[in-house]
Amino acid sequence: MTNTVAPEAGWDTAPGLLDGAKQLTLGPEQCNLAYWFTEVAQGTLRDRGETGHHRDAGIPDFLKQPGPLRDALVLEFGYRGLSEEIATRLLAHYVAIAPGIPELEFYATQLIDEARHARVFRNHLVELGLPAATLVKDIDEMAADYRRRVLQPVEDFTLEVVRDQADFMGGVAVFAIVIEGVLAPAAELSERKWTPLSPATGEISRGTAIDEIRHLTVASTILKDHLAAEPGYRPRLLEILRAGVKLWDEVPDKEFVIHREELFQQGMAEHADKIGDYEIWPGVRMLDTTPEQRYDMAEQWTDEMAAERMAYMGLPLEVLSSTGGDAV
Fold first, then answer.
1. What percent of the chain has pLDDT over 90?
2. pLDDT at position 183, please?
3. The pTM is what?
4. How confident is the model at residue 323, as a pLDDT?
5. Is 94 exposed, middle or buried (0-12, 13-18, 19+ CB in 10 A)?
6. What is the DSSP string of 246-287?
7. By the 8 A CB rule, do 285 and 278 touch?
8. Most buried among 33, 50, 162, 168, by the most CB within 10 A?
9. Element (H, E) at 222
10. 280 phi and psi, to 5 degrees?
11. Whole-number pLDDT of residue 53
12. pLDDT of 38-93, one tens digit each?
């Protein structure tokens, strides 16, 4: 008897993050604990539960040697691992104040997802040769400036809404539209960048992206349904979104992204023969892109994804612009 996995959770059938986040419709009643145990744990993670990649997906020796490409990957996965650890801790507050069982079960599974992401990002650095015994301390030291200047303001903002104000729906908006809505395109870029260079690294990014599709789409459904039932919450939701956009405009995330993309650029040039004519997006060879172009494309993906999800929820896209439209 063959077990059939839901298409959006199957390793070979799930869409890419951008297409999935823009096109799929999933809700908390569907993505409950039973769904996670069957479709995710026994579907997405089959043969990849420990490391995030299949045992046959190797890590090339050149990524284990000192150089800009390895430095770029250490920074990227170190920062992402720390971000996912913080996300895991934040989600405990969502579980605590979830208004119903479907929301409680879904956010309990998302908490596990984010904890798993943090683990596989960290452990991949050990696979690259970083010492396991001091890994957490080493990441904390490496990412201290990033945590203080980028992650801490976002963490404080989220805690104010979901812990201090106990606003569950506001917290859903912060996490899905502001935090993950901004970071998800960077995850898509990561998968595209590393796939031709390291099968294991590409698979880790692929697996986390499949989870992010679920997080984004379910959260959008939660908010859409809440606005339909409680239209009076709409001004409050728009207020939170404006504040979140203002926050992201103020944190200096770009300088950290560009720095590691510059390292990636140097390493890519050194290993151009391994990349060849691989296209990072249709019609564009990765070797022909610059750090700024890759960053700008991730920004474009953010805008495209936001347009789809905001339209699905019946919210004005203008509220996510830097000028912050006043439409309600």
1. 89
2. 84
3. 0.94
4. 52
5. buried
6. HHHHHS-HHHHHHHHHHHHHHHHHHTHHHHTT-EEETTEEGG
7. yes
8. 162
9. helix 199-229
10. -75, -30
11. 97
12. 999 999 999 999 999 999 999 999 999 999 999 999 999 999 999 999 999 999 99
**Alpha carbon distance 227, 280 (integer Å):** 38
Average pLDDT rounded to a whole number, residues 195-205: 96
Burial 28-41 (b: 16+ CB within 10 A, else e): bbbbbeebbeebbb
Alpha carbon distance 139, 119 (integer Å): 12
pLDDT at residue 1 tops 50: no
Residue located via tokens 């920004």: 299
CATH hierarchy code of domain 19-315: 1.10.620.20
Instruction: Enter the tokens of residue 196.
Output: 């031709």
User: CB atoms < 10 A from the CB of 42, how many?
Assistant: 14
Residue 325 pLDDT level (bands cut at 50, 70, 90):
very low
The 10 Å Cβ neighbour count of residue 232 is 7
Helices (H) and strands (E) in the chain, counts: 14, 2
Closest CA to 309 of 187, 301, 248: 301
What pLDDT band is residue 230 in, cutting at 50, 70 and 90? very high
CA angle 234, 238, 243 (to 5 degrees): 150
Reading the block at residue 95, the tokens are: 């579980």
Torsion sign (Cα): 198, 203, 209, 215: negative
Tokens 């839901």 appear where? 6
